[in-house]
Specification:
The complex is a heterodimer of chains A (about 425) and B (about 250).
Chain A lengths: L8 H12 L10 H14 L15 H4 L24 E6 L2 E2 L13 E5 H4 L13 H5 L7 H9 L4 E5 L7 E6 L6 E10 L4 E7 L5 E10 L4 E7 L7 E10 L4 E9 L3 E10 L5 E11 L6 E10 L5 E11 L3 E10 L7 E10 L5 E10 L5 E9 L3 H8 L5 H17 L5 H17 L4
Parallel strand pairs in A: 1-5, 4-6, 5-7, 6-8, 7-9, 8-10, 9-11, 10-12, 11-13, 12-14, 13-15, 14-16, 15-17, 16-18, 17-19
Antiparallel strand pairs in A: 1-2, 3-4
Helix pairs in contact in A: 2-6, 7-8, 8-9
Chain B lengths: L1 E10 L5 E10 L4 E5 L6 H9 L4 E10 L2 E2 L5 H6 L2 E4 L6 E5 H15 L7 H14 L4 H5 L1 E2 L5 H15 L3 E5 L7 H14 L5 E5 L4 H5 L4 E6 L2 E6 L2 H9 L2 H7 L1
Parallel strand pairs in B: 3-10, 3-11, 6-9, 9-10
Antiparallel strand pairs in B: 1-2, 1-4, 4-5, 7-8, 11-12
The chains are: A alpha/beta (about 425), B alpha/beta (about 250).
The complex binds adenosine-5'-diphosphate and magnesium ion.
């Protein structure tokens, strides 16, 4: 694993240039956390492509002071994903809270919900112990300076505390309407003992988007997360999820990414309580013909408790020079016996121009564990393609069916079947738009 | 119905001839059987006729109802009325059997300029046909052929055939791996589809399937050629004496 980023003059200059171009909020209850985070950014320096952890993804566009412009989505607008469901909507347009597009009243049974920008006017808040705390923990053993920068600079976000079973899902909807927006949002979510929440996230958010989500699960808490990162082609995004799991708690996260010139989704899972379960999955589809596509899933799971289960299921469908990256690690600490760790990353290359770069890792210090990882890169199976075509299905439709077949395991990680079906419909739409004739 | 003339085929990847001048003419409503030792080219013949990649036709022709087959895409051949029940049906995880069947049926209807079946109508027809093949609702919901037993896979092939109502059905070793009961079920499924406008080519190793699906004509294939053609008695001869005598006779 990479050592902390090297200190060097170029890195320091780049970091200071970036900071100088930012308007760092002073914060209320977050003041201390922001200051500490800023110190972490300066200590590590912003990442560069020479860093081991950024070997496959060049972070330049994520770190440069002025982010590249991003054209707005010009395709046909579909009905909003999850839009027909009963849910509480919190909308952000280019990183700014959008009251008009949000639910009239941010009140929900079983949940306390506030905006960071509102809560941060005062010194006391339940999120005070959480804001930046999991992010700070997640800087070991690999530094994640862009997450620290987010903690220091976030302008808004939501603070959600589930105290019971949330009456309906919370849906964060991100709109992108400015070609130059550079949005930084930070969400804190605390699931109290035995509480349960489903969080939905959709939309591209901004020309350049930085998001950190810290999810703290008390014993027996359950958190379901389904997100889709929008259809915009030219947006850039760096997102981090940091989660800490208490005993018997459950964390499940699924991400759909179709399009996007640059996406890096990091997920840092810290399993602290016995018998906890963490599943993280992703389906990414990229077609270089409609804009560059570079998609990176970087996952780090730490098992530090007994009898826990973790699963990582990542699938990528790549076409026309699209690039997929997967870096996934399972670290089983001493004493984390009866760990069940599973990791699979697979790419389906629809042509010879695309590539998949994978770095799966296991590091195990306990003896009674079951851990496995696998990574494959392949093309559409000729035999299956012929089988479908021999039944009268066109080559294009047969290919689409086989793509869905390939993605099925990742989608199956979504617990709710209705949400699964909505994701599948979106995938079918994406595939249909890429069919000949 | 199906007419194959002097068909020569080699593997695309290596310069290996597999079919060396196959002639075959199947009339409407007829049932033909092809028997022959392993490796004689029976599956290759079925693949080439249905349009699988990887083979090169170096000579000869094949037509279905007067339409040249060899220039058509596999899906066009299917829409024209050709069906191949695979020797090894393919598993497709994540795609429900029902979705697969409906996609196939509607794709063919569309290609023929017919209206697509509504979900309701489709369901009714599938359930009815599945029932006679003892395919339960659970099997229809499961991903295509995933976790199916050998017999279930073969019955699933026959279900597809029943749904697609092809004119020319090629069955490649549909009896292999089946116990007597399963074989009877499959044979009943095939016999139910026998019709003056529908023909069958049954590829098999054993005479026993032909006790249930009575052929009009039996061909013996060896080393890429049809070496002998006769009536049902030819199958019995093979059953009793094996291929050795026949091969010797030809050589
Ligand atoms: N894709 C292939 N690659 C290599 N050899 C093949 C391939 N397909 C067929 N063959 C060879 O062609 C011959 C005929 O095979 P096949 O048509 O499967 O025979 P049968 O169905 O009569 O048992 C065999 O020698 C087989 O090994
Ligand atoms: Mg064979």
């Amino acid at each position: 694993m990479a050592a902390p980023a090297r200190k060097d003059a170029a890195r320091e200059a780049a970091t200071e240039a970036r900071l100088a171009a930012m308007d760092l909020p002073k914060g209320g209850f977050t003041t201390m956390a922001r200051a500490a985070a800023l110190a972490r950014v300066r200590a590590a320096g912003l990442p560069s492509k020479r860093d081991e952890y950024w070997r496959y993804t060049n972070p330049a566009e994520l770190t440069v002071a002025d982010g590249p412009e991003a054209a707005l989505f010009a395709g046909q607008v579909e009905p909003q994903l999850f839009g027909a469901r009963d849910r509480l909507v919190v909308a952000f347009t280019d990183g700014r809270f959008d009251a008009e597009r949000s639910s009239a009243d941010l009140a929900l049974e079983g949940v306390e919900i506030t905006r960071l920008a509102v809560a941060d006017a005062v010194d006391l808040h339940w999120a005070r112990d959480l804001y930046g705390a999991l992010e700070a923990d997640g800087q070991q053993p690999v530094v994640r300076p862009l997450a620290a920068l987010n903690t220091a600079a976030a302008t808004d976000g939501v603070l959600i505390r589930a105290t019971g079973r949330a009456a309906k899902p919370v849906h964060l909807v991100y709109y992108h309407e400015s070609t130059t927006s550079d949005a930084i949002l930070h969400h804190c979510i605390r699931i109290e003992s035995g509480a349960e929440l489903t969080l939905l996230e959709t939309g591209p958010a901004a020309a350049r988007f930085s998001k950190v989500m810290e999810v703290d699960l008390a014993a027996g808490g359950r958190f379901h997360h389904v997100r889709a990162q929008g259809r915009d082609h030219s947006r850039r995004a760096i997102t981090h999820i940091f989660t800490r799991l208490g005993a018997g708690s459950q964390f499940k996260s699924f991400t759909l990414t179709a399009n996007g010139v640059l996406t890096r989704n990091e997920c840092v899972i810290d399993i602290r309580g016995d018998g906890a379960v963490a599943h993280v999955a992703g389906a990414a589809l990229g077609d270089g013909a409609t804009g560059d596509f570079h998609h990176d899933d970087t996952v780090f799971v730490t098992h530090d408790a007994v009898g826990c289960e973790s699963r990582q299921v990542f699938k990528k469908v790549l076409k026309n020079g699209a690039v997929g990256v997967f870096q996934g690690k399972i670290l089983v600490k001493q004493g984390a016996q009866k760990t069940d760790g599973y990791q699979i990353s697979q790419a389906l290359l629809l042509d010879e121009d695309s590539q998949f770069l994978a770095k799966p890792e296991l590091e195990i210090y306990a003896d009674d564990v079951k851990c496995s990882h696998g990574s494959t890169t392949g093309a559409i199976d000729d035999t299956a393609l012929f089988y479908l075509r021999s039944r009268g299905v066109s080559r294009e439709d047969a290919t689409a069916l086989l793509v869905l077949s390939f993605l099925a395991d990742a989608i199956a990680e979504i617990e709710d079947e209705g949400l699964q079906a909505e994701i599948v419909t979106r995938l079918e739409g994406w595939l249909a738009r890429r069919r000949k004739g | 119905m199906l007419e194959i003339n002097n068909l020569h085929v080699k593997l695309e990847a290596e310069d290996k001839p597999i079919l060396k001048g196959v002639n075959l003419k199947i009339g409407a409503g007829e049932v033909h059987a092809i028997m022959g030792p392993n490796g004689s080219g029976k599956s290759t013949l079925s693949y080439v006729v249905s349009g699988r990649d990887g083979y090169e036709v170096t000579e000869g022709s094949a037509s279905l109802l007067g339409q040249e087959l060899l220039d058509m895409e596999p899906e066009e051949r299917a829409a024209a009325g050709l069906f191949l029940a695979f020797q090894y049906p393919v598993e497709i995880p994540g795609v429900g059997n029902m979705t697969f069947l409906r996609t196939a049926v509607n794709a063919q209807r569309k290609a023929r300029g017919e209206e697509e079946l509504s979900a309701g109508d489709f369901l009714k027809v599938v359930r009815e046909k599945a029932k006679t093949l003892k395919i339960d609702a659970e099997m229809l919901k499961r991903p295509v052929n995933v976790g199916f037993s050998g017999g279930e896979k073969k019955r699933n092939e026959i279900l597809q055939m029943a749904m697609l109502e092809p004119k020319m059905c090629i069955l490649d070793e549909t009896d292999s791996g089946l116990d007597v009961d399963a074989m009877k079920l499959v044979a009943d499924g095939v016999n139910a589809l026998r019709d003056a406008g529908r023909s069958f080519l049954v590829i098999t190793h054993y005479q026993r399937l032909l006790d249930h699906i009575k052929p009009d004509v039996v061909h013996i294939m060896a080393a890429g050629r049809i070496i002998k053609t006769g009536g049902p008695e030819l199958a019995l001869e093979v059953e009793n004496n094996g291929y050795a005598d026949l091969l010797a006779e030809v050589n």
